[in-house]
Amino acid sequence: MKRQTFTSVWDAIEDTAESAANMRVRAELMVEIERYVRGKELSQADAAKKLGVTQPRLNDLLRGKIDKFSLDALVNMLGRVGKQVSVRVGKAA
């Protein structure tokens, strides 16, 4: 049996390269939001207010529920706290 290797976990669990790329970017944005919350040492309620979401929604994010967040929602949350999201496009691996 041939062993399959993948560039990332997303490539292994997603059906298409496009879906894997979307998940990879969402995961990166969620990590940035978590860094913001932890770095500011805010309560979830205070952080949620600054991010423009409810505390239960922020809790979903902090618990890694990636399927509940679109790229747009994550970019908007970061924008509300003064973070700029930039895009870099490169050749696929």
TrEMBL record:
Domain HTH cro/C1-type stretches: 32-88
Source species taxonomy: Bacteria, Pseudomonadati, Pseudomonadota, Candidatus Muproteobacteria
One Gene Ontology molecular-function label: DNA binding
Highest taxon, organism lineage: Bacteria
Protein name: Transcriptional regulator
